[in-house]
Amino acid sequence: METWIRNKIPANFRAGLRSLSRKLLPWLLLSPTLVLLTLVISGPLVGTLLLALTDWNGIHPPNFIGADNFVKLVHDPVFYKSLGNNIKWMLFFLIVPVIMGLFVALWVSRVGRGQMLYRSLLFMPYIVSTVVTAKIWLGLYNPYFGINTVLEKWGLGFLARSWLGDTSIALYAVAVADTWHFWGFLVVLFLMALHQLNRSLEEAAIVDGANKIRIFWHIVLPQLRPTIVLVYMLLIIWSFAAFDYVFVMTQGGPGNATELIATYMYKLAIYNQEPGYASAIALTMGIFSLIVILGFGFIKKKGWDV
Amino acid sequence: MRRHKRWMPVCAFLLTLAVLLSACVGSGKPAAEETGGTKTDTETNNAGTEVSGKSAGSGEQIELVWMTRPPDNEEQEKIRREQVIEPFERAYPHIKLKLVETQDPDMLTRQQLAAGAGPDIIVVDGPTTLMQFASAGYLKPLDEYAAQYGWNERFYDWALDTGVYEDKLYGLPGAYESLVVWYNKEMFQANGWEEPKNFDEFMRLNEKIQQSGKIPFAFGTTEFRAANEWWLSLVYNSYLGPEEFKKVLKNEVPWTSDLIKEATQLWVDIWKKGYINEKQSHAISSEDAWYLIYNQKAAMIMEGTWALDRLVTNPPPFEMDFFIMPGWREGVEPTLPMALGEAIGINSKTKYPDETAAFIDFYYGMERAKSELERGTFLPVNGLKIDDVQVKSPLVKKVYEELNQAFAEGKTGYASWTYWPPKAQQFLWDNIDAVFLDAMTVDQYLQKAQEKAEEDAADGMLFRFSD
Lengths: 306, 467
Prior knowledge:
The complex is a heterodimer.
Chain A: H1 2-8, H2 11-51, H3 68-74, H4 77-110, H5 115-127, H6 130-141, H7 147-153, H8 170-195, H9 199-207, H10 212-241, H11 244-249, H12 261-271, H13 275-301
Helix pairs in contact in A: 2-13, 3-13, 4-8, 4-10, 5-8, 6-8, 8-10, 10-13, 12-13
Chain B: H1 2-24, H2 31-35, E1 62-68, H3 74-91, E2 95-101, H4 105-114, E3 121-124, H5 127-135, H6 143-149, H7 151-154, H8 157-161, E4 164-165, E5 168-169, E6 172-173, E7 176-184, H9 185-191, H10 199-211, E8 215-218, H11 228-240, H12 242-249, H13 258-272, H14 286-294, E9 298-304, H15 307-313, E10 320-323, E11 336-340, E12 343-346, H16 353-363, H17 366-374, H18 394-409, E13 412-414, H19 416-419, H20 422-436, H21 442-458
Parallel strand pairs in B: 1-2, 8-9, 11-13
Antiparallel strand pairs in B: 3-12, 4-5, 6-12, 7-9, 7-10, 7-11
Helix pairs in contact in B: 11-12, 11-13, 20-21
């Protein structure tokens, strides 16, 4: 049969078919994912876009109101407060867990025996459910039986604070709880990157008499750059999607001090019955995330090893 | 084999497509429609009438979907099974109840109804939500069933009125509840403190408790910020009195009026004095607040009559009692803000309205009302007598009698989760912390509340008080 086909079909036509099948095959393989993406992502995306242009309250039929929701958003002080909190949250996560994760990963990578134990211990908080972690930290922050009582017992009562009650520190108190849960993940990421370093460069630097700080700054850090950039990109996007810890621990309070865009959207859609307006905020944040991703794409195009 | 492998991606694609398409099919109908089935028999219900069977055909079992919250503990689960599901299914052998438990039935029901589906039996947290559903045409009018089952005579008038929308009955009222001050009676007696009879005595009591090193009021909102509405309900009813406050709820008087301002300022001052959980109410949870009561660090807790369930099933190691908050202004009588904690209706798209009506008749029938009363849950059913049941705590009897006396004397007010405009209510409980912490002035707070109330009025969401 194959011989018959070879004889009957011209060679150039067969080559064309082969080329076509080579082009089609990847698309065919991708098609299940593409169908899923179309249904699961594009559907809600289009739905959100349409909802953002309505005053739908979740019960009655929606009315088309054009860009009114976006105009409202521009004049909404709680939106700006939430946006500001998201930026603070992002800066906290770009600094605190990254520095902690990087230095602990460096330290663990030098450990010979028992490295797996340390890695497991550091990663363990990450596998604890968010609600459980949040409840543990709620207990720790409790003014009547939390860390304040321990501080007072140790004679450090002046350090005691109303951790979740003081508007100036509540957001950071929640961020610390999230960091405790999250930073083990960064340690593992950095550890993987550290294991792939080109050791010969480090050895050459040692031979040249470079000290540890110079080795870290000029040899280790540049090689970690792709991982650090990836971590930063993820943290920026995740920071603007942050919801769970704030929702469980403070629900955005006190007085919007810990309100984030995601918790604000939830309140608008669920409690305030304004899913149309919540959709407008969601779209705005989606555009922001797109800008971040495009920004990283631009950096990559400029030659950064991302 | 290799050729087979070439077809694998195509098969995978087709399979994926088939799975996705099959997932998209089947919804969009009310739950009961999907179960199919009919019935023949007519059965006699609690009220002695018969389920007509006009909505179902003959021969098969039918299934009614009942979406509600999961029980708090095993005891409640047992009660639900043994006192609701099993006796109902025995009384109506052709009906099977399909229980769907979710932490937020209001939200899930709303989403399902908007998608053209939803459970047959619509149970929500109060009449406000039910009236929203009625206004959107999601509910079946119940007037025929009310006549058939005698609901107009069974329920208290004020409670049944909350289920009326545009002169038609759409919902039946669940348990009624109010807000009182629970206190450690032994601590009060040991210190010579007494229940306050007016606002001055109330303030002096707070002062004395604080001076003794105890916390006057335990209160926490971290995990449930809506708990602020308990205090808001109490404060406005106690300061304005029900008649004045009703004008605000009807938007006849703005939320920026002097009386509302004075009441808000008074509460803010009380909070700032540390009487309410030492200015830490936004930093602890309601469970933490009860911990402070049980460990005798706090003397009082302002919570709903639903706290009876906790006090009966898990009593503290000392005697508890309660008092009604005195009026906060000269000439205002002590007022109990009333609310309904549940409301029930019938999905307009259910295939089995008669059977659903039979269920809600059973669910809010006299037998269940009696068993609920034993545990301190009060259904607004006429003819229910506390002496006919064996209550588990003298507190239950006392609360029941106080509530009934308040009804008789017209000393009842309006709790937020039944009577207040929804957007204004949500704004008020969500932002009072900002006022406490000086991040917002009382004027700004009330101005914004007024704007929200006007939005509610425009949406037709003000409570429809019957004259």
